[in-house]
Predict the 3D structure of the following.
Amino acid sequence: MAAVVVLKNVVKRYVRGKQRVEVLHSLDLTVESGEFLALMGPSGSGKTTLLNLIGGLDRPDEGEVMVAGERIDGLSSGQLAKWRARHVGFVSQFYNLLPVLSAERNVEVPLLLTNLSRAQRKRNVQAALELVGLADRAKHKPAELSGGQQQRVAIARALIADPTLIVCDEPTGDLDRESAEDILNLLKTLNQKQGKTIIMVTHDPRAAAYASRKLYVDKGRLTAEPERTAA
Amino acid sequence: MKYLPLVWAALRRRPGRTLLTLLSIVTAFFLFGALQGFNVGINSAFQLMNVAHLVVNNRVSMNAPMPLALGAQIAAIPGVTALTPINFMAGAYQRPTNIQVVLGVDIDQLFKVNSDLHASSEAREAMRRTRTGVLVGRALAQKQGWKIGDRIPIHGYTMSKRDGSADFTFDVVGFYELDQPEWAVRIWGNYAYLNEARASDKDTAIEFYVGIDDPAKSARIAQAIDDTFANSGNQTITQNEKEFFKGVMSQIGDIDLVVNIIVIAVFFTLLFLIANTMAQSVRERIPELATLKSIGFTDSGVQWLVLTEALLLSIVAATFGLLLAEAVLPRITSVMSSQGIGPMHVPRAVYGYGALIALLLALMSGVPPAARARRLRIAAALAGR
């Protein structure tokens, strides 16, 4: 299998007040196509920062980030935006749907950046909503949907442009257990049946259990197992 | 066009706030269009006014009476072809707020002075025969429902009779018309009747209405009249009708200046209002704008969405405001025509200026929040930093 994500010696620093804090230290990571990777770790460990670098939402201070065969750490803001439109679908904890648009209109938003006709966009939206089991809720606005249903709309939106990679930041963090399991099953189905490469940040071990591989981010470093503190 | 639903969605996010902002802009542009239309009305009134006759008033005050004897001296000035003294009686007809003004004149001289007035020879003859007769403007007669033969009692506010009462009764003997039909709203009575009936200020005129042989000489003749009385106790100010009307308007104030100050003040206030609305709107939508960027919208794309929002709000509301003014002005004209104001409408140029002002408002209020949306760092915005 080909590598979809390759990170080499990635360093990321933030300025907090007068201090420069290094949150990721010379980090290396490879994610193969079709993988479902769970990134775990405590709050502040750097897992969301890592996800943002992979998704092209942020740039590293040092090192290389290669995703979908393209080095993205040196792209300009405009190039990076276009690259994201082609290659990445985002799912976040708080869904981030546009509240006055219906479910189908929310799902359609990424397609506005393509040259598809209105009819084609409509067909694709319907297919995406059917895939996430919400075809009958297409006309509903986010406020008329449950949290789980809103997250399904967000997943449909992430899928609609057929991205190379889906990145999820705590996708079940705001859901009850039943809805969370529905969402995780949906992600697993997308990974196994559609072959989608998924990288998911979570601090919940039950959510991570749905992934095919788990990695831990702790104090800015990646490990295969969580670091244990001495008793 | 395909991005319009996103702009529309942003405006619908807080419908109450959008509606109130929209109404404010509509009101401001309505005011802008209506005031400019009012200016058009005044200017068109100036255009239509006659310069072929002069109005002589007391220089001290327009309301101060002048001795009737001045008339003979004015009539002797070269270039003067006709002259009538005017006395006036303002009072209430039927109800206190229905104020009517009867202008007492020498009816034959009046028609010589002002060739714009049209009345039948029967009506003029009836005026000569009937001391209490009045010639009523057809527009006013229609409004009041008067017909020939009606007796109209008017309770005088500015004049009382020798017997101590203030109730005057007039007989409608005919109508007069003007080329500008809606301006025919005066009541012409007989100077002699009012002069005899009045308790005080007998043999005086509030103004003299003077006909001249050549409109091109109006300034020279006016100067000659004023020079005649320059060293007397009755100094005069003589103007043609256009200047007279301008003088009346200038007592209210410089209309152009007042209109411009109001318009500038309104738009200045509006700028803060829209700027605040746009700033609030963007502040509330930071996670949504960050999401759009994460989906693949470029920095400039998001910036244009915000700017288009301001443009749409401003231009749609401005168009509504100006069209509303256009729709309402004919109604105002019908009410104001009796005050001598000409037909009002929103001039074409005002639509152009309106578009320019709407554009400037949108840019000035929209650019700062649009720039903020452009600068938005996705990771920080999504994390609420």
